[in-house]
Design a protein that fits this description.
The complex is a heterodimer. By secondary structure, chain A is α+β, with helices and mostly antiparallel strands. Chain A is about 35% helix and about 20% strand. Chain A has three domains: about 50 residues, no CATH class; about 270 residues, SGNH hydrolase (Rossmann fold, 3-Layer(aba) Sandwich), CATH 3.40.50.1110; about 140 residues, Jelly Rolls. Chain B is globular, with a radius of gyration of 23 Å. Chain B starts with 5 loop residues before the first helix and ends in a 13-residue tail after the last helix. The chains are: A alpha+beta, B mainly alpha.
Chain lengths: ~525, ~475
């Protein structure tokens, strides 16, 4: 009896000793946390900052949030349960309509030659039927009319059957780099107005996850890559595509038409964009495995150089290879098809903020854009900036205006600012909500666009505005990082943008000629 | 409320303070933990607490009635009621929509068309876990292996106990209820062990699982066509490590938190990727689920004593149900079929060619082969649906080889985590012992440093635990 009592006493002693141990260890942790509030240089490590929801009290808020969201709001719902009718309904009619089109297009068997005929071909009276942009809710804003005018004038010529290409250069961040949205724009515009080819393609995959769809693009890994985001070229010469490639021994790249692509099976020209250099090497260009054409890149330092090869109309595979001499400095290649058509260049710079374009030498990029003959410059940034600590919207707006002025030296080129997608975060209660910076960035971009005489497309609002990413995620149109769309989501965005362009074009055509 | 949040640690501190202050006040202590557990659960969805309370009440009454009667018919009635009630709730909330849709889809193949009835309800968090826990109670009482719970409060404590409520481990009543019988006590070094487990669990979750999820796995599964075959392989390995660190990290925090209350929860993992066969894998992965199904399904069906063909069937159906337990979708149906078939094939080969003690190389080969199977089968586990699974598989065999899209940091985490997994167990035991033996000031400093490091590394996205959805 006494022994049992002693054993119990010992157990009690151990328990109290352990509890004292717990209190002491916890006090060290609490003291460490407290020190972040006492020492200013540890301020960024504070677990709770002024303005944050009070810990635990925030649970009440999360219950309220769940009521609004109709449930668990992302926690425990699985990777992605099948979107239900309620979720589809929440997307809004314009998005739903575009999604339906995308889904129907997926199920419709591809025609062999879908893009040879354009609605206006052979018809000098260019028309856009209102049914082509039916259901659209967000228009392109262009109060001055100068943003889209150069583009629409050229598009009208193309649509009217003139054997002229209309070119769009769409610069942007990772949402553009995957070419998911831009390839939909390319396909739809080419199906509507005629094929102009694939447009500009970078030499190699310099950074994740650059893609150019509907061609087979391969490259060796021994290219030295200097993207504009890192500002590694002090002379600011990054070429049209924002990436400067330097060849090393054995470097190669190839570009081939894809036999089962819906557009771009046939091309008529290949053009290499490069930079001359006193020690520049040679590049061998081989078409369809035939005899190589040697392009010498030796010349005046930094001068832009171009080597164009005309091809018989048809499918082709073009290989470029470092062929001795010094290192060659390349920017990219253009694959086009002559005739009436549209070319949509996708220039996605992963991780880029708009201000990175200020790394360009102004005269250099102006010459590149002029040589390329761009009719509409589209700038689509803001997604990465949404996660940055903003210096202030005024500063952001001013920076963006500087970017516009640098990129658009000539009013002969149209200009449109393409607002970022909704960017969201998931909090601890599982609630997915728009980052507060997004509406401010969108508003600043809009002001910058209109002040600089550019057009503006509000992608954020077209997606559904505040909370769009949550609804898109539920409907499998957005990725789990809440920053990017899924392939289907990008197609929906492209569809919304395409319809907005058609509507603006229709308005332009309806105006009496000035 | 997620374990890797400030909310949880404040919550835990409050509960622990109350728990130990009420050490000798049995009823008040139990009431405190029950209320705290209900609030913890209600942080996800307040309405669904009704389901747990209903299930608990049903099983408590069934247990009490089973304990009070020897009439076989009555006993069967109460057991049947408990089984139907619990499995009925699970079916209604988790499987009904899937089976209704699947029936309509299959019928449409034969020209019969109807619009399936659909419940517009969300899956209650943790339903698969607490359903199995409460079922184990009534079955054990029915079998006479466990006495009915002394009080409803104690039973409610067992079912709703917050550390293991939403994602296990699946604790049996026979393991848990006896721990509530005495005044709570702590054993020597239990606090240090508990704190070490919590820190390890958080590191697994934040450093490995969340990092790989946000920077590799989600990207690849959301857009497989944007990645090469080798990148998809990296993504699959990434998910394999992510899910282990996510789930075992959760279990570590759960066990560590319970340990600070003097309650022992069972182990759920034993370095599963060192398994040499599918059977070995399931002995090491989510052990409390595997053993639950073994004891309450496989053995009652006859186990391996029921003749060779029946034994294969028993094994197959048990593994298939393990697959289906995870979710109501075709991907989990196929996952279950794949695991069950692999298990049956392995047993057939094992019987035909009994294993001999192999060399180190042979063992290494078996581990590598089993790991490849586990990694490949994870496609079905992670894919959003069959279309997504097909896209990932297609890309896996696309023959493309670039690795350009995987950042060095991701490689580092992936390689280091697999290397750590394959380290001898003794390394971890020694690390834990070093922590446990360290003076309290050093332990506190180590924990503060770990918390600081993890908060710096943590992704800006809050990534919920994967198993919350099951």
């Amino acid at each position: 009896m006494q022994a049992r009592g002693g054993e119990r006493q010992e157990r009690d002693d151990v328990t109290w000793r352990e509890l004292r141990h717990l209190i002491l260890v916890t006090s060290i942790v609490v003291f460490s946390i407290a020190s972040t509030y006492l020492l200013p240089f540890l301020a960024r490590d504070r677990p709770f900052k002024a303005g944050d929801a009070l810990p635990l009290a925030s649970l009440w808020k999360s219950w309220q949030g769940q009521k609004e969201n109709g449930g668990l709001a992302g926690v425990g719902e699985g990777y992605r349960s099948a979107p239900n009718e309620k979720e589809q309904e929440a997307l809004g009619s314009a998005v739903r309509e575009s999604l339906k089109e995308v889904q129907e297009a997926e199920q419709t068997p591809r025609e062999d030659e879908p893009s040879e005929k354009s609605a206006g071909e052979g018809d000098s009276q260019v028309r856009v039927d209102a049914r082509e942009y039916e259901g659209i809710e967000h228009r392109i804003e262009d109060p001055s009319g100068e943003g889209m005018r150069p583009f629409f004038l050229q598009l009208a010529r193309t649509a009217g059957g003139k054997a002229e290409l209309t070119r769009v250069a769409h610069y942007g961040d990772s949402s553009i780099a995957t070419d998911l949205m831009t390839f939909t724009m390319r396909r739809r515009l080419q199906a509507r107005f005629g094929e102009g080819g694939h447009g500009f393609v970078l030499i190699a995959k310099g950074f994740m996850p650059y893609r150019h769809r509907d061609i087979v693009h391969q490259a060796s890994t021994n290219w030295s890559v200097k993207p504009i985001m890192y500002g590694l070229s002090p002379d600011g010469r990054y070429g049209y595509g924002g990436v400067h490639y330097v060849s090393r021994s054995g470097a190669w790249a190839s570009f081939a038409t894809e036999s089962d692509a819906p557009v771009g099976k046939r091309i008529t020209s290949f053009e290499l964009f490069f930079q001359e250099d006193p020690q520049g090497g040679d590049i061998a260009i081989r078409v369809d495995g035939g005899e190589a054409t040697i392009v010498q890149t030796r010349g005046e330092k930094g001068k832009e150089g171009y080597a164009k090869i005309d091809l018989s109309e048809g499918p082709h595979r073009i290989e470029i290879r470092h062929a001795g001499g010094g290192a060659s400095h390349l920017y990219g290649a253009v694959l086009e098809k002559a005739g009436a058509g549209v070319v949509y260049d996708s220039i996605g710079l992963v991780g880029a903020r708009a201000v990175r374009l200020l790394n360009y030498d102004g005269a250099h990029i102006a010459r590149q854009l002029e040589h390329r003959g761009v009719h509409l410059l589209v700038l689509g940034f803001g997604g990465n900036e949404a996660g940055d600590p903003l210096r202030g919207v005024e500063a952001y707006e001013e920076d963006y205006r500087k970017v516009i002025r640098k990129m658009r030296r000539s009013k002969e080129m149209g200009c449109l600012l393409f607002a970022p997608l909704d960017q969201a975060r998931r909090d601890e209660s599982g609630k997915i909500s728009t980052m507060p910076s997004v509406p401010r960035i969108v508003a600043a971009q809009r002001r910058a666009a209109l002040a600089e005489g550019c057009a503006f497309f509000n992608t954020f609002e077209a997606m559904g505005g505040e909370g769009a990413m949550r609804r898109w995620y539920a409907s499998r149109l957005a990725m789990g990082d809440f920053r990017h769309a899924t392939p289907a989501g990008y197609e929906v965005i492209a569809s919304l943008f395409y319809k907005a362009i058609l509507q603006s074009f229709a308005d332009h055509l309806a105006k009496p000629p000035s | 409320m997620l374990f890797h949040s400030l909310d949880y640690f404040l919550f835990l501190a409050i509960v622990l303070t109350g728990y130990w202050l009420l050490r000798y006040a049995d009823r008040s202590r139990i009431a405190l933990v029950v209320v705290a557990s209900c609030l913890f659960y209600m942080a996800w969805n307040p309405v669904y607490i009704v389901l747990i309370l209903t299930s608990t009440l049903l099983d408590y009454v069934a247990g009490a009635r089973l304990g009070a009667t020897q009439d076989p018919r009555l006993r069967k009635f109460w057991l049947g009621l408990s089984l139907c009630g619990n499995l009925g709730l699970l079916f209604a909330f988790k499987y009904f929509n899937f089976f209704a849709q699947a029936s309509a889809d299959i019928a449409s193949l034969f020209g019969l068309h109807w619009k399936p009835l659909r419940f517009n309800v969300l899956l209650p968090v943790g339903i698969s876990f607490y359903t199995f826990q409460t079922l184990s109670y009534t079955i054990d009482v029915y079998r006479g292996q466990l006495a009915p719970a002394r009080s409803f409060g104690r039973f409610l404590f067992f079912v709703t106990y917050f550390p293991q409520l939403v994602a296990g481990p699946i604790v049996r009543a026979s393991e848990f209820l006896p721990q509530l019988e005495n005044v709570p006590r702590l054993r020597r070094d239990e606090v240090a062990h508990g704190l070490f487990l919590i820190a390890t669990g958080l590191a697994k979750k934040i450093l490995v699982a969340d990092y790989l999820s946000v920077n590799l796995v989600d990207r690849i599964f959301d857009n497989p066509e944007g990645y090469t075959a080798t990148e998809v392989v990296a993504g699959l390995y990434g998910f394999t490590m992510q899910i282990y660190c996510d789930f075992s990290g959760y279990t570590d925090v759960a066990r560590g938190s319970a340990m600070l209350m003097g309650i022992e929860l069972p182990e759920n993992f034993d370095r599963p990727y060192l398994a040499q066969s599918p059977a070995d894998f399931w002995r090491r992965w989510h052990m409390t689920l595997s053993t639950w199904l073994r004891d309450y399904l496989y053995f009652p069906l006859g186990g391996s004593r029921a003749g060779p063909l029946r034994a294969y069937w028993n094994l197959w159906i048990t593994l298939f149900l393990i697959g289906l337990w995870h979710g109501a979708s075709w991907t989990f149906v196929l996952y279950g079929i794949l695991q069950a078939t692999a298990m049956v094939l392995h047993r057939a080969v094992y019987r035909r060619f009994p294993p001999r003690e192999g060399s180190v190389w042979l063992r290494a080969f078996k581990v590598a082969a089993c790991l490849q199977f586990v990694v490949f089968s994870r496609i079905l586990f992670r894919a959003a649906d069959l279309t997504n699974a097909k896209a990932v598989t297609r890309q896996l065999f696309s023959g493309t080889t670039s690795m350009a899209q995987i950042a060095p940091g991701v490689w580092l985490v992936l390689v280091a985590s697999f290397a750590a997994h394959f380290l001898p167990k003794v390394v971890f035991q020694r690390t834990e012992q070093s922590f446990v033996r360290a003076p309290w000031a050093l332990q506190g400093a180590a924990l503060a440093l770990a918390a600081w490091g993890l908060s710096r590394i943590a992704t800006s996205q809050v990534v919920p635990y994967i198993y919350f959805q099951f």
